[in-house]
Design a protein that fits this description.
The protein has 27 helices and no strands. By secondary structure, the chain is mainly alpha-helical. 47% of the residues are buried. About 3% of the residues have low confidence.
Length: 610
Amino acid sequence: MSESLPLRDRYLALIDQIVETTLKGKISSVEQVYQLLLQGIASGTGEVFELALSDRLNTIQTKVDSETDELKKAKATRSLRAVKTIQTQWQRCQEQNKTTEIIASAVREITIASNEERLAVFLRYTDPNQKYPLNLSQLQQIAKSLQQFGTANSDLTQISTGITQAIAAWQRIQENLLSWMYEQKTSLGFGGVPGEKGPWASWAKLVKSEIPQSFFQTLAIEQSPIEFTQKQQNLSVSDWVELTIVLQFLQRGLVSWFDKQAYDIQAGPKLSISTFLTFAVIWSQLANGWQNQSIIYSNGASQIMLQILRTFAQRPYFPMYGGIFASFSGSYLRDALDYLDEPLRSAAGTQEKARILTLLGYSQRALGNYPRSINFHQQALEIARNAQDTTCEIANLNHLSRTYVQEKNYAEAINNSQRALILSRQTGDKTGETNALVNLGYSEVMQAQQLENTEPEVYESAINYLAQGLKLAEKIGDIQTQSLCFSSLGIAYLVTSQYEEAIKYLEQGFRTAQVSGDLYIQGRNLAYLAEAYYNLINFEKAIYTGSLGMYLLEQISSQEWQQPAGLLTTIKRQLGEDKFQVLLQQNRPKIISVIGVDGYDYLPDLLARY
């Protein structure tokens, strides 16, 4: 091909040459076409090639459409197929070129960045939300390039070393990523005996590298990531980078596997949600732990946490009406959601941020931080409106209604649930409508109780809303909302002194909350079940359900643990210490089956604290 020809003509000649060679049978694979394009197209001239390719494609397509001679038409059709193969392989070339450009850009930006900014720049390129997220081989290329630019013990060399160590550690984990699930055999979650079984202990045995191993061992014995940062006071840049990459690929590997679990429509999304939330919490705690040691490490951890939450917020199963899930129930989760809002204060007002704030608002309500919960939901509501995310807008109106009930502000609760009901019916959001019906009925029941309204019609009307909500939730198969419906109906019957009906719905509410994995609703159902049994003078069941409810609510740091604790204290006073202990001991096997021996042994401490 003559170099003296204009560029466009040279590219037309290249296309014609590949087509002709293909028709003669001298090109037998798409890989050969790909290599010819890589060799023949000069860097930075892709637009010229695309114009030439488009021109040739149109010319041959016209010939195929207009040719009447069968032999000529057949040849033109084969030529068209060959040009379309060129088009496909050109797209592949562009992807490769783009990746090459990104790697070069990453190396350039990391190299010229200041020491304070270098890790933040590096983390921008490992962000899974970017269009071309880097895989392991591309990270290896970055490591090699940084090694060339770095001097001994420089940050560049340490980042390079950290990447190399992380890849080796992750590859060892990757081969046995889920072996712990088969060893455990009891559940798919992150439960298990601290230090013995479960994922953290399993991964600690797999890695040979000191820092990831120490981190996994810390979580295996249910210590907080903050305690890990206190043990690792002088963490090097290479160690920090290694831990960062291992945890990022670990989280993505788990989510990828859970997302593919079609055998159980509940388990797959439930475990993916748990994984996203757990790793976000871990990074928030690491950010908190490093705050007094290294602001660079702390900011980096916050950056990763926000990346995880942004990815999570874009998933179809993002829980608009849930927050805390049971699969990952180690004590290291306690109090951690408190830290999650800090990095979000500087994030842009995006649709993702609205959804993240929705999650945080729900979680803060579970913790008993009602003013903070309302603040999160109001921020989310405004952002969702601006982003025209109606589903998120309706969800936050519903959450506000629920939180105002907790604050006994029933007028605002009714107002927000009515707005949610109108908007959900206008837009056809069935989940939003279900929650709005439940919240409206629940708010009206609680308001009537506060006003000491004894007229049965008031309660009948409110309970009718709740029944409508339950019927709709069952119709659309929404487990999370069903558990809320059962729970709300149970509480409504409880406050109207219909204790047998209350127990029926609260027990169903507890079971469905176990399926959805929502610890908060589980704990609340058990707390109210204890009250219903107490009113029926069934002290044994009141002690059983009250003990479980108290423990589960306290484990997620919800202040509502004091409700069943107060009831248990009253029962103990009425029965006497000895009889109370006899009834508690009778329920020991059932309690242990839910919260384990350690949980059972912790119950007296909780009662003493109350």
